């Protein structure tokens, strides 16, 4: 249902912005690579090892589900990829960039341009309008010209059929609407990678299905999506899933290699 708007968005993207990673994809074997990543939290109660040598490769254009019981380490894996948290040992390489070798301020801009993050509880800024929420990443990372940002935010809202809500506050929207806004906010800078932590966990099944369809459309346009989920329906609908238990990847389904062939990034036509 969102498909008709993507060709329009593609024109906007091509004329105004190139993703920071886009020209490096052709010769990259893996878009995302975790090399023996370990994470130990030091707490008053003692050390707790949340990740025990995680190795993971993700190709451009994959839709990967990360599943596992509560506390198994799923969000910690996402935090390693986004650079929100640092590994105790090991390395995260995203298209040739060693994520954790960047300075904090460098990393914030890199993250803003290359990774869109979607949360279970949406995390829209409550005092900003829907439109302002979507413009925020562009303002922060200085992507697109200032006078183009509003038009781009509106075109993203159009994609999810919500232009009529542009001036509302997040609290005036339903959960499903807030999540659609959060997803297009994650797309604001046209990042090649979207990570989503339980994005349908707070939605009824019909709304969750619509949100999943939106992610599916994005994968069809060449985005790479990593999604933590407890939803077994969604798990069955993605290309590959990994199961995490006690800080380790204990199972994988699907074959990531098949996604290597046709994948493109940055909203290019598929
Ligand atoms: N900052 C922290 N300090 C100490 N322990 C932490 C910290 N963050 C996470 N942990 C612990 O690390 C383990 C893995 O946490 P993580 O959030 O990655 O699990 P999860 O699989 O995403 O769980 P859930 O499905 O409940 O979100 C948990 O036992 C958690 O309590």
UniProtKB/TrEMBL annotation:
Transmembrane segments: none annotated. It comes from the Bacteria. SMART domains: AAA (SM00382). InterPro entries: AAA+_ATPase (IPR003593), ABC_transporter-like_ATP-bd (IPR003439), ABC_transporter-like_CS (IPR017871), ABC_transpr_LolD-like (IPR015854), MacB-like_ATP-bd (IPR017911), P-loop_NTPase (IPR027417). It holds the Pfam family ABC_tran. Keywords: ATP-binding, Nucleotide-binding, Transport. One of its GO terms (cellular component) is membrane protein complex. One of its GO terms (molecular function) is ATP hydrolysis activity. Residues 32-270 form the ABC transporter domain. This is Putative ABC transport system ATP-binding protein. It comes from Pelosinus propionicus DSM 13327.
């Amino acid at each position: 249902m969102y498909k008709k708007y993507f060709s329009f968005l593609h024109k906007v993207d091509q004329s105004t912005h190139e993703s920071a990673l886009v020209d490096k994809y052709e010769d990259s074997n893996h878009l995302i690579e975790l090399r023996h990543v370990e994470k130990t939290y030091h707490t008053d109660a003692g050390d707790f090892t949340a990740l025990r040598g995680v190795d993971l490769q993700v190709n451009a254009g994959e839709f990967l589900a990360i599943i596992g019981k509560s506390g198994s380490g799923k969000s910690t894996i996402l935090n390693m990829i986004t650079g929100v948290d640092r590994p105790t040992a090991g390395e995260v390489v995203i298209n040739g960039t060693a994520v954790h070798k960047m300075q904090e301020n460098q990393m914030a801009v890199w993250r803003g341009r290359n990774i869109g993050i979607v949360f279970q509880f949406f995390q829209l800024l409550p005092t900003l309008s829907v439109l302002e929420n979507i413009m925020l990443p562009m303002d922060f990372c200085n992507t697109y010209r200032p006078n183009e940002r509003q038009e781009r935010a509106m075109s993203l809202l159009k994609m999810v059929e919500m232009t009529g809500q542009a001036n509302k506050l997040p609290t005036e929207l339903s959960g499903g609407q807030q999540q659609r806004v959060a997803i297009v906010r994650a797309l604001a800078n046209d990042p090649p990678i979207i990570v989503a932590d339980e994005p349908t966990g707070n939605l009824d099944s019909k709304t969750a299905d619509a949100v999943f369809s939106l992610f599916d459309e994005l994968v069809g346009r060449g985005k790479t999506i990593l999604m933590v989920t407890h939803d077994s329906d969604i798990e069955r609908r993605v290309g590959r899933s990994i199961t995490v238990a006690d800080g380790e990847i204990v199972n994988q389904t699907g074959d990531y290699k098949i996604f290597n062939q046709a994948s493109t990034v940055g909203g290019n036509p598929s």
